[in-house]
Known about the structure:
With 236 residues, this protein is α/β, with parallel strands linked by helices. It has one domain (54-214, 223-228): Vaccinia Virus protein VP39 (Rossmann fold, 3-Layer(aba) Sandwich). Helix content is 42%, strand content 22%. It has ten helices and seven strands. It has helices at residues 3-12, 19-36, 47-59, 81-87, 100-113, 125-132, 147-154, 172-178, 180-186, 223-228, and strands at residues 69-73, 92-96, 118-121, 136-142, 158-168, 188-197, 203-211. Helix 4 (81-87) links the parallel strand 1 (69-73) and strand 2 (92-96).
Amino acid sequence: MNKxxxxxxxxxxxxxxxxxxxxxxxxxxxxxxxxxQKMNLTAxxxxxxxxxxxxxxxxxxxxxxDFKTLADVGSxxxxxxxxxxxxxxxxxxxxxxxxxxxxxFLEEVKKQLGLANVTIVNERAEDFVKTHRxxxxxxxxxxxxxxxxxxxxxxxxxxxxxxxxxLKGAAGLTELKNAAxxxxxxxVEAASIDQFELGKEGERTIITFRKTAPTPAKxxxxxxxxxxKPLEDLDG
Length: 236
């Protein structure tokens, strides 16, 4: 995929980008390649792969999502948060990333691309939620951890009836099955499951969760406890 086929593919899905937005994506690509030489941001650096496996893959799952505010947990090099901020400049995006050096990269991307609708937070999600509980329409996470862990970190950030959109690989359905105790504990349901092929990477599984009731105050727990005893291991 290149800039033109990226633009054409999104247009077929009903999303039309202007020249400024396409230039922002190009700037982002070049910054990613430049900074990746001095820190580990991504294993995917070839232009064709970046357009498809980072940019297109970040946008497609959100084409029909209705929201004004989104929190991207474990944003890393900015996926999917930065591509979404380029596509929807009238919406607000909060990128939560615990590693300071990655936040420095994200701040540079924000500055160079002029993304006034992006806020970058150098915190762990379980700490950030202490002051931002129930504040976001949508929460996203891409390749951060297994679902039972992600759900506990992400669901508390959602407003009532908010959506958590998890970008998973081929193992997504297995993770969903294992996460049944987490869904019950956190008062959330799997609202939709979408799958599509992403080049040579194979299957992409997009699972959208809906928050059905307030999250119990005891969640999220300390991260060490989340890892030691994930909700999928709890009885009932």
